[in-house]
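Show me a record, fold above all:
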Amino acid sequence: MKKPNLLKAAGLTAVLMFSIGNVKADIPTHNYQFHVPKDATVFIGDKDHTVFVAGHYLQLHYVPFTPQENVLIAETDTSKIWYYNLKSPKNADGFSYRISRPGGITHVGLFKPRAGTTVKEDSLLVFTEGQLSVANSRTIDHDVTHLAGRNVADIFLNINAQGYLTLPLRQDTVFELFHTRNWQAINTDVNNYFIEPDFHYTVVDENGQPSSNVITVNDKGIITPVGAGTAIVLVYYDAMVCFHTKNVKTKSLFSALWPENTGVFVVSVDAPESSITSNMNLNAHWAQDGTDKTDGVAIDAEHDVLYFEADKGSFPYTFKPEGVTSVLVATPVVGEHITGYNGFRADSVTVNGDGSYTVRLGFGRNIVKLVSATGSTYQVITAKPVTYVISNLTHPDEPFQSGDTVSILFNTLYHPANKMAGIYNMSAGIQYTGFNTNFALILGPGQYTFASRAQEYKVTIPDTLTAKKFTLTNGVIKVKGFGSYYGAHRKITKQNGVPPNLSASVREAYFGALPEIEIRIGVASNLSDIVTDNRINVYPNPFAEYIIINNTTDNGVAVICDLHGKTVLTTTITKGNNRIDTSSLSRGVYILRTGLQTVKIVK
């Protein structure tokens, strides 16, 4: 077996051993051994589902790994040894392994035999207590520059664009939940061989309290209805250390799901028909020439993110439903590890004179409830804060004038359809009305590293402009690339999988909403404008009881000021992650400075 050099990235090494300690057992014929702590478990799998594509036998994506049975599990004084007698893997990239233990971080990777070797020469892997404790299962890494600029921990589910599932109350009814990490831990950008983290499920009622009165979800993601009513399902996954990703050479920690991205959907069992037409649409302006979204202009619970300026605290979304008597919103409460809810309320809803409703959407997955005389329906809507810097590229630090080229640097936007094996391989870019965004379909900064590299939008103020301000409107994220229709991930099943798509068509659509940008003619950019610095990473933002400052430089001082320049908090920071208690701060907008770096933060 080839010694997996990729393990060294996290301090893990493949170890050659000629004895096995005080094992009191007859050792059967074997060709692989895994030494792990006594409370750890080992899973070995193979992808033996193949499909013939373009003259090659390739593995189906998304079908489960086939477990490989061990021939013996023996104990020493300090560990367990799992013995395997494995035939050649059916997958060209080898067998997958999964080493896990309670409270520790799961280690995953690939291994395969090397011609001419024997068990004593090259087939023993050792995982120590220290290695499995290098992080924990709930470790969260928000730094988008990690994983070669691909560090985004999001999730896709197989519900629908509403995020609303209805089930009958019958004894034989079940629904198999399918989900995938996004970004996937693929081995290469071409092979797309990936290993998923461990997923978990929490079921709560409409008040956000744990409940099993309506449905249950087992550890395999099977939803079973047990009573009439409505429940909310929260899906999250653990962190993992991954050694087979050849496109990520220096950092192998894949974060647990970011809490603001907790998978959220609503389930109603035995619900009456509501006869509601929600009309919750988005970007009809951009869809006039068609769209490759599976649900057209309907707002998408996962693909569409509505970005609001951080100091405004929420996104105002207006729609005009039919057949409703009231509209309520469950605003997300983004915790340290998972999103929660405190019930549906009307205090973030405005009823307009024309019969439309405006809902103010907070940070995370909001749930909008539309109520009629006969029943209700639901829509999950994702909203996130963003900050940006406006600067004059033609005449730096001088007032903006007609003909100047302007830079708008955002922090941080996210790709609406990150790479998924056999489904999405798209590029993305920022788009505003009247200014077309052209970008490379492959190998551009918006394809695999959108969140870390493709945050700048440049535009030239027209020479003919005579007004005192120049406004950018209808901001969206344009996505174009090779793959399936946007929303096709919801059709994946574990039974059928997805074949490699070597002849994918180009798909184009416009997603989400970006803030309207106003550039004042004759005024220079300064600190009174929205400020940020992509070199400093602060999260969560907006924050509540704490912030974490990821400091990539030497020890220093962090200063938090209010918008009048008054210092409200000063603290020393060291290199790495620094958790800062902000519980004493009032709600509002603040400026955080470390050295020459500045970022706007919102409580």
About this structure: The longest strand covers residues 376-392. Helices lie at 119-122, 129-132, 146-149, 445-448, 450-453. The domain at 537-602 is CATH 2.60.40.3080 (Immunoglobulin-like). The radius of gyration is 26 Å.
